[in-house]
């Protein structure tokens, strides 16, 4: 008996060492080699089952700047800066409807040069270990968006009462679906990989900051999301999908959220809870702009609002939606009347601390994406929210968040490996007992 005990103690140690060493090669921060990111309950994981936490930024202009050889350098430059800062997901437009450097010149008519600029952006993102959220249309008129679809409809002779007809008119919905299909099935001219098969793409986003103010009830938006989410998944059932909401609760639910809610956002026709419960939506998004929503408030009050706003959405994502939530846009405007540089630093820490606390506890808040990262040379594009890697104070905050998220990922993987090792030992021991019993 003593001899058998020593033998099995040796086997136990050997199995633990084997299992542990098997996972030593796993990259803690899941890179592109981790495959397409998927949802697992309230979390994101890669194809190896490793946790994936979103530490990201926005640079909506990648395709636009990449369409001209004189400005293409900015694409590579900003992705290099993002990688240096430890960012792993970027959000950019996969649309440009009409106008200068348009991707979609008119319904179904595309500029191949501009499309190849998006190809280039995706390949450069992969080269810099970045995944991309690709947004498929804008709610606003910048780069065409919903108003351009309505204009195209009128030019074609259809009765289009307002821009919100984008969500209801059959022809406009068909044009949008055609664009979705065009993008998702696109074969990258540089990598040769179809977008729908490319792990560089983190997720699809139906629309940037969806709103339908002509129907505050939210019924129109709910029907549109249901239809379009099903359509996207009929083409690509592997990539994640979000709506692109700002996080407003809608006229009905906003009353109960009044203590932490922008007063002028009751009638956007959207609802954070209702819409994210729709089938085929994988995760919720929230935007955070106290400077725009509460312009008369002083900075300390805005910070309090921000903390409540973020934590309220994490709580609802966990308890009600039971899905991940990503704070897809957040920023501090340096053009407000009382701005001081330390306010931006405090703003960032408010977001980052809430997200870090969430991931540490295993809750639904799994990431955030600052608005917006610029490289040197694009200062003319600064909208007051610009972030530069050359700003040491902000860069330190961004880097610090990345490092502590990485530690959480390491802890999760370590715990999982220990559990696997223990399970294998128990299984091996059980098998041995069965063999011994058969020998008797």
UniProtKB/TrEMBL annotation:
Organism: Riccia sorocarpa
Lineage: Eukaryota, Viridiplantae, Streptophyta, Embryophyta, Marchantiophyta
Main location: secreted
GO molecular function, one term: mannan endo-1,4-beta-mannosidase activity
EC number: 3.2.1.78
Pfam family, one: GH5_mannosidase
Location in or out of the cell: Secreted
Zinc in keyword set: no
A GO CC term assigned to this protein in UniProt: extracellular region
Family stated for the protein in its record: Belongs to the glycosyl hydrolase 5 (cellulase A) family.
Reaction catalysed by this enzyme: Random hydrolysis of (1->4)-beta-D-mannosidic linkages in mannans, galactomannans and glucomannans
InterPro entries linked: GH, Glyco_hydro_5, MAN-like
Protein name: mannan endo-1,4-beta-mannosidase
């Amino acid at each position: 008996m003593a001899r058998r005990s020593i033998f099995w103690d040796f086997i136990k140690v050997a199995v633990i060492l084997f299992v542990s060493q098997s996972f030593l090669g796993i990259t803690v921060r899941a890179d592109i080699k981790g495959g397409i990111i998927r949802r697992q309950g309230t979390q994101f994981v890669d194809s190896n089952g490793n946790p994936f936490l979103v530490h990201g930024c926005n640079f909506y202009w990648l395709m636009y700047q990449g369409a001209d050889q004189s400005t293409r350098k900015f694409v590579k430059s900003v992705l290099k800066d993002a990688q240096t800062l430890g960012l792993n997901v970027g959000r950019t437009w996969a649309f440009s409807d009409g106008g200068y450097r348009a991707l979609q010149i008119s319904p179904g008519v595309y500029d191949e040069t501009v499309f190849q600029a998006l190809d280039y952006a995706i390949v450069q993102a992969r080269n810099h270990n970045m995944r991309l959220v690709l947004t498929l249309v804008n709610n606003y008129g910048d780069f065409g968006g919903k108003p351009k679809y309505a204009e195209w409809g009128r030019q074609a002779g259809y009765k289009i009462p307002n821009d919100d007809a984008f969500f209801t008119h059959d022809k406009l919905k068909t044009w949008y679906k055609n664009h979705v299909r065009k993008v998702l099935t696109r074969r990258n001219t540089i990598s040769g990989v179809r977008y729908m098969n490319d792990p560089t793409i983190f997720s699809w986003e139906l629309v940037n900051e969806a709103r339908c103010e002509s129907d505050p009830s939210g019924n129109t938006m709910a029907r549109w999301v249901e239809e379009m989410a099903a359509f996207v998944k009929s083409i690509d059932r592997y990539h994640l999908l979000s709506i692109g909401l700002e996080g407003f609760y809608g006229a009905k639910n906003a009353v109960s959220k009044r203590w932490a809610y922008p007063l002028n956002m009751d009638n956007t026709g959207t609802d954070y809870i209702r819409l994210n419960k729709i089938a085929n939506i994988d995760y919720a998004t929230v935007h955070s702009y106290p400077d725009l929503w509460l312009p008369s408030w002083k900075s300390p009050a805005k910070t309090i609002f921000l903390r409540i706003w973020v934590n309220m959405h994490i709580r609802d994502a966990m308890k009600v939606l039971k899905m991940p939530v990503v704070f897809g846009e957040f920023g501090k405007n340096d053009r407000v009347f009382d701005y001081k540089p330390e306010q931006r630093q405090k703003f960032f820490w408010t977001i980052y601390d809430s997200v870090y606390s969430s991931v540490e506890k295993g809750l639904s808040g799994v990431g955030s994406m600052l608005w917006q990262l610029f490289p040197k040379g694009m200062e003319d594009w600064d909208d007051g929210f610009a972030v530069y890697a050359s700003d040491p104070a902000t860069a330190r905050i961004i880097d610090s968040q990345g490092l502590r998220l990485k530690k959480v990922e390491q802890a999760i993987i370590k715990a999982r490996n220990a559990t696997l090792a223990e399970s294998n030992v128990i299984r091996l021991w059980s098998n041995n007992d069965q063999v011994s019993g058969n020998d008797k």
